[in-house]
From TrEMBL:
Organism domain of life: Bacteria
Location(s) in or outside the cell: Cell inner membrane; Cell membrane
InterPro entries reported in the protein's UniProt record: MFS, MFS_dom, MFS_trans_sf, MFS_Transporters, MFS_YhhS-like
Protein known as: Uncharacterized MFS-type transporter ACFO5W_01030
Entries under Pfam families matching the protein: MFS_1
Lineage: Bacteria, Pseudomonadati, Pseudomonadota, Gammaproteobacteria, Lysobacterales
SUPFAM superfamilies membership: MFS general substrate transporter
Organism for this UniProt entry: Dyella halodurans
Major facilitator superfamily (MFS) profile domain mapped to chain residues: 170-399
Length: 399
């Protein structure tokens, strides 16, 4: 699958060849993280709009990401994953330019908000193209046998960048003003495009291109497992602060940090298990651990137990995406795997999109613990679905 040019770098260690590509994911999500932390206060405090419009500005990116997953996957399959990644980096850079415009128009709130919404749309398209393009580009460099490793490292780059980007965005805005977020975004993406241009492309796989709805149908069962298993993460990330406050506990931020550390730590230390034991087995264990963590979190009698539940949830959630993703993309030929990855990723977008309203409805009476129990039951349902898929397909394919 590698081109002659890329084979020249094949003497590099495997992990380094992967990191050379997922570094672009890190830089793109650094831009996303910087914006995420400072946009709501800018819309609310500087432009004078309410919480609803501040939320709309944030969610616009997610809608654009969801709607452009198919484009990102098809571009990776037909024009090559490097092309998809470069389009994504350029779109993220365009978002930065528009963000500069929104900052300069702050005295015209309606105009500033309109430009900002365009910036968020561009960033959403950029996110989907970078995420899919870099994973497929990385796989092209190291081979299909290392798919799980590439997906795992791409996830580490994603969540690591979001964790770094948020405080960096707050610090930059406090020191230099909101406009510097746009300037920093453009600078980072120009650097990314320069580095990406120097990285060799990989060969586009020849073969029949399946219609997107056929690809979607093949990966849908795995996507459903991913969606059900992602609700726990969405509930924890969205409501853990309110849950702690309702119980009179301190340390919600520390709990989120521990969740993130467990997530990244498991991917670094146990990512190899997917290739060794197969995606189905790892997904089953991961979903059951996540279920246990959510039950502990929901039944916690004090903050120490809740911290343990969050840690178990992070450990369980860590490998769900790569383990189910490996077996999902194997349901299609190599010439359609970019589209399969894009279709598979749609399910986590949808799951995280509905978690907020669903969790809010469940907790409408001010009781947050039942949300975690419902999320645990969804993880258990995902484990049952994975077991059925394993019994049906596990003996006919790797994983």
């Amino acid at each position: 699958m590698n081109t002659q040019a890329d084979m020249a770098g094949s003497g590099l260690p495997l992990t380094l060849r992967i990191v050379q590509i997922v570094a672009f994911t890190f830089l793109a999500y650094l831009v996303i993280g910087m914006q995420l932390a400072v946009l709501p206060p800018f819309v609310h405090n500087d432009l004078g709009f309410g919480a609803v419009l501040a939320g709309l500005v944030i969610s616009t990116q997610y809608v654009a990401t969801l709607l452009s997953r198919g484009f990102a996957g098809r571009t990776s399959d037909t024009a090559g994953p490097k092309r998809a990644a470069v389009i994504g980096l350029a779109a993220c850079g365009g978002s930065g330019l528009l963000m500069i415009g929104a900052a300069l128009l702050r005295d015209l709130p309606a105009a500033s908000l309109g430009v900002m919404l365009l910036a968020r749309l561009a960033l959403g398209v950029g996110e989907s193209c970078v995420a899919t393009g870099c994973i497929m580009w990385g796989i092209g460099r190291v081979g299909n046998a290392h798919t799980a490793k590439v997906i795992s490292w791409n996830g580490i780059a994603t969540y690591g960048a979001l964790a770094v980007g948020a405080p960096v965005g707050v610090l930059l805005t406090a020191t230099f003003g909101f406009v510097v977020i746009g300037i920093a975004s453009v600078a980072l993406m120009l650097l990314s495009l320069l580095l990406a241009w120097r990285r060799p492309a990989v060969r586009v796989e020849a073969g029949e291109r399946l219609p997107l709805h056929h690809v979607f149908k093949r990966v849908a069962p795995y996507g459903m497992g991913l969606a059900l298993g992602s609700v726990g993460f969405g509930v924890l990330a969205t409501f853990i602060t309110l849950y702690y406050a309702s119980q009179g506990w301190a340390g919600a931020a520390l709990t989120l940090s521990l969740f993130g550390l467990c997530f990244v730590g498991v991917r670094l230390v146990f990512g190899w298990t997917i290739g060794h034991f197969g995606g189905y087995r790892v997904a089953l264990v991961s979903l059951l651990v996540e279920c246990l963590g959510l039950l502990v979190l929901g039944s916690a009698s004090h903050a120490g137990v809740a911290v343990l539940g969050a840690a178990l949830t992070g450990i369980g959630f860590s490998l769900i995406f790569p383990s189910l993703g490996v077996v999902a993309v194997e349901r299609v030929s190599a010439s359609n795997r970019g589209s399969a990855l894009g279709a598979y990723s749609v399910f986590i977008d949808v799951a995280l999109g509905i978690t907020g309203p669903l969790g809010g409805w469940i907790a409408s009476g001010g009781r947050y613990a039942p949300m975690f129990v419902v999320a645990a039951l969804m993880s258990l349902a995902a484990a049952a679905l994975t077991g059925v898929l394993y019994a049906t397909y596990g003996n006919t394919m790797r994983g």
